[in-house]
Amino acid sequence: MKILLATDGSAHSKAMIAKFSGKTFAPNTKVQIISAYERSSYMTYTAPMGVLSQYYAEANQSALKSAGNATENAATTLRKKNPKLSISTIVIKGS
């Protein structure tokens, strides 16, 4: 069986992962956990000394890190209760 879970790290996502992790799974079940982050589209604007571009670059890095943390935390929760599951994580850029 293959299962795709989406998470954003919110309280609702964490509650869903906690409830999901209590289920019994068939042998060879594969779970992929996905999170999407939104990149700022304002990277093209410039200001003196590159202030805006640095701000948006840091905001994008923060969003990517947050999405990565959400998937890894979900995977950790699942592995604790289901060590035999095959779990992978992925972070994608949203629109």
Topology:
Elements: E1 2-6, H1 11-21, E2 30-37, H2 51-81, E3 86-93
Parallel strand pairs: 1-2, 2-3
Any overview of this molecule?
The protein has 95 residues and is an alpha/beta fold. The chain has one domain: Rossmann fold (3-Layer(aba) Sandwich), CATH 3.40.50. Helices cover 44% and strands 22% of the residues. The chain is built from two helices and three strands; from the N terminus they run βαβαβ. The chain has helices at 11-21, 51-81, and strands at 2-6, 30-37, 86-93. The protein has a three-stranded parallel sheet with strand order 1-2-3, covered by helices on one side. Helix 2 (51-81) links the parallel strand 2 and strand 3. Helix 1 (11-21) runs parallel beside helix 2 (51-81). The chain is elongated, with a radius of gyration of 17 Å. The model has no long low-confidence stretch (mean pLDDT 88).
Features:
3 strands; alpha/beta
Briefly note the structural class of the backbone: alpha/beta
Average pLDDT figure: 88
How many structural domains? 1
Q: Give the ordered list of helices and strands.
A: EHEHE
Q: CATH topology, which one?
A: Rossmann fold
Main sheet? 3 strands, parallel
Cross-sheet strand order for the largest sheet: 1-2-3
Shape category = elongated
Q: Beta-strand percentage?
A: 15-25%
Give the % helix: 40-55%
Query: What is the CATH class name?
Result: Alpha Beta
Radius of gyration: 17 Å
CATH superfamily: HUPs
Q: Which CATH architecture would you pick?
A: 3-Layer(aba) Sandwich
> What's the total number of strands?
3
User: What is the end-to-end distance?
Assistant: 29 Å
- Please report the number of helical segments: 2
Q: What ranges have pLDDT less than 50 throughout 5 or more consecutive residues?
A: none
